[in-house]
């Protein structure tokens, strides 16, 4: 690549930035939405995986195994393109959010389950001896400690979701990657817009990593 080509690439990346940054809220909205919806669902799945009922454990384990064992792109296709054959039609935003939420919930459930299991059983027994019921023990004793253990993995899940939102571009959602593709369709210069999109993903992920480290230090001081 000579100097002139490099200048063209940099100019293309710079001129595409306003359009790409305009699509960034969509990317962040998908990631945060899937995280906020995936957390309670993941918590319920984690509790199901810890249930004493065999059929509950079995169904929840099957769900986690299926989601973790299939590509997210295939899950998006099944939800957006497959469900209409069953009479369920979703718009691109709803289809993308549902797919990302179901995917995130499976991974979050394993994080939450492992965090709950990391709390010594003796603490639960001590809480019971003090007259706390199972719900109070979970809410007051187990979950505050489990949250500290789970924080790094949950933060990594959010960072992964930011990058995974690029996959909803295949169902015409105009997020960051799709916005870059639309710019390329107008300019016929792919390197600059794709480079700019990659730098934005990197910047957002790096910022989230900084926030993660701050939260981890704060939680560790509070422990």
Automatic annotation (TrEMBL):
Repeat keyword on record: no
Entry keywords, A to Z: Amino-acid transport, Cell membrane, Membrane, Transmembrane, Transmembrane helix, Transport
Membrane topology note: Multi-pass membrane protein
Domain ABC transmembrane type-1 as annotated: residue spans: 24-212
TM segment ranges: 20-50, 62-83, 89-108
Main subcellular localisation: membrane
Domain of life: Bacteria
Subcellular location(s) per record: Cell membrane
InterPro entries, per the entry: AA_ABC_transptr_permease_3TM, ArtM/GltK/GlnP/TcyL/YhdX-like, MetI-like, MetI-like_sf
Gene3D superfamilies named in the record: MetI-like
Family: Belongs to the binding-protein-dependent transport system permease family.
PANTHER family membership: L-CYSTINE TRANSPORT SYSTEM PERMEASE PROTEIN TCYL, MEMBRANE COMPONENT OF AMINO ACID ABC TRANSPORTER
Protein name as it appears in the record: L-cystine transport system permease protein YecS
Source species: Deinococcus caeni
